[in-house]
Amino acid sequence: MTCLKSKDLFWYGLIWITTTLVFMLAAFGNCATYLIQKRTDRTTTWSFDVGYVNAAACGIYGYSLVVPVAFYFLLRYLGSNASLIRFWCMWGYSLSIFIPTAFLLLIPVEILRWIIILVAGTASSCFVTLNLTSYIGGSNDLRMMMIAAFLLQMALAIFIKVWFFP
């Protein structure tokens, strides 16, 4: 699970995975909204809500850029030898599980959708947390940062479910 030990880090995580996720959330979020409306009102017609693209872009790109920077500066302040580029790549790659999850969230069973997003959020959170262990010593302050990273990833997963797949 900790695959980010290579010196040849690729920017795919930050650039391509986040961009793919933005468009997948916008497309599948629109589809899910249409399918839910169609189940309750048979006369509903398809209309693409471009607001999903804006929300996905702001939410995903903002999260992918700001959260790693915050963790970088906090860890540097606490004396850790953190790498901003490594953090951007790590958080970008942690979002890859949400791409197939967006497709699975089209399933019209609400309890199953919640289980899917919580499993994906947990997997993504574990990926980030396990990769942060190389920067964390025995300090309780630094362990709190691992918990914060886990909770932030879970918050992102819940945001994806609530905002794009109501």
Automatic annotation (TrEMBL):
GO cellular component terms listed in the entry, alphabetical order: Golgi membrane
Membrane topology qualifier: Multi-pass membrane protein
Pfam families: Yip1
Segments traversing the membrane: 9-36, 51-75, 87-105, 111-132, 144-164
Keyword terms: Membrane, Transmembrane, Transmembrane helix
GO biological process: vesicle-mediated transport
InterPro entries: Yip1_dom, Yip5/YIPF1/YIPF2
Protein localization: Golgi apparatus membrane; Membrane
Domain of life the protein comes from: Eukaryota
Keyword Transmembrane helix in annotation: yes
Boundaries of every Yip1 domain copy: 11-158
Molecular function terms, GO-annotated: small GTPase binding
PANTHER family named in the record: PROTEIN YIP (PTHR12822:SF5), PROTEIN YIPF (PTHR12822)
Family to which this protein belongs: Belongs to the YIP1 family.
Name under which the protein is recorded: Protein YIP
Organism: Gossypium raimondii (Peruvian cotton)
